[in-house]
Amino acid sequence: MEQQSLIRNRPFIFLFLGSFLAIIGFSMFFMTTTWFVISDLGSASSLGIILIAVTVPRILMMAFGGVLADKFKKTTIMFSTSSIQGVLLVIIFLLNNANQLTFGYLIILGFFFGTLDAFSGPAGTSLIPKIVQKHQIKQANAAIQGLGQLGFVIGPIIAGSVMEFGGVTAGYLVSAIIVLFSAFFMFPPFLKEGPVDNTIKQTPLKDLIEGFSYVKASKFLMTGILILITLNFFAFGAISIAIPILVETYGGTPINLSYIEAALGVGMLVSTAIIGVVKIRRRGFTSIAGLIATLIVAIAFSQIPNLYILTTLAFLIGFTMTFVSIPFFTSAQEDTDPRIMGRVMSIVFLAMNGFDPLAYASVTLLVSRGFDIQLIILSFSIVGLMIALAILWLGQTYRNYKSNY
């Protein structure tokens, strides 16, 4: 691979832009759907069911998505999934425009949307080490995730503004256009992916078992995955579903919802920019410290009944969360055998996203039973903090990990 900066690496730039637009479109879809369910369907419990429908198939198919990412061209997988997701959003727009978008349709279409995401995530993540030099992997991750967080800022703002003036139907239309446009930048000839690394012929089941065995044998990977599970179940997953409920409870509008969602993204963006320029060698300790900080802020989030203060705390949650994921993510990419990269990344993605639906289901169940949403967040955060402190005390291998890059 020629020595070149990331900004002159054309395949990386196209991946950069495609990922950015995909996240804008997805975040718009996510916010538009949450507001549609809360305001039009009028049911917080229905919101949890919809989110579960989107995320559960991603759990079930994520490991298989990693197998495909090792067997086939990652660019082909990404282009295909983004294109089909765009078509699904067009269908949702048409149904809503005809006043035919029901709870059942959202569950079915959300199911397929989540299934596709199980294939695109591992493919995109495992593509990065193939198109950049090894010492640039952390910078590339920071750039893509940083732009992604900017997408999470821009997406809710666009969605809130569009819904404020054009309603939910317009929100779905704009998100569909953006996702379809993202597929353009993921067109395989633009990304120029090299040959497939995994040329060993064996059954998909053996491929899957090999991936899990590889992860199980690494204390670093196992501890990092436990950290991601703790972050996403006890902090991010629970707070994600709590935010629209809190906005509705305190008399907010779509703009208030967009402010909080945007603040979360801005926090991630700022910390990602810092990580991109600061060399972090003690990545294990940094990741644990980030988890502890996130959960402490989440405890404060659970005690504030003011939407404006919650917006500030959402910024801090986003800021601290990035210090959990990027250091671990980058080290996993640097140290993993390229032949098995897709499967390892799929397991990491599973830890990052797979426990969200359990958090959604738990929070939804507790809310439906009459528990106060802020009490729920407080309980989740305290349990998560106890786990994080235990990892800090017992996870010596992970805590002492240092990177050579």
UniProtKB/TrEMBL annotation:
Ranges where the Major facilitator superfamily (MFS) profile domain occurs: 11-399
Molecular-function GO terms, alphabetical: transmembrane transporter activity
Domain of life per record: Bacteria
Entry's localization field: Cell membrane
Gene3D superfamilies associated with the record: MFS general substrate transporter like domains (1.20.1250.20)
Alphabetical keyword list: Cell membrane, Membrane, Transmembrane, Transmembrane helix, Transport
Membrane spanning stretches: 12-38, 44-69, 76-95, 101-119, 140-163, 169-191, 220-247, 259-278, 285-301, 307-332, 344-367, 373-395
PROSITE patterns (UniProt xref): MFS
Record-linked Pfam families: MFS_1
One GO cellular component, as annotated: plasma membrane
Membrane topology: Multi-pass membrane protein
Name of the molecule in the record: MFS transporter
Organism: Alkalihalobacillus alcalophilus ATCC 27647 = CGMCC 1.3604
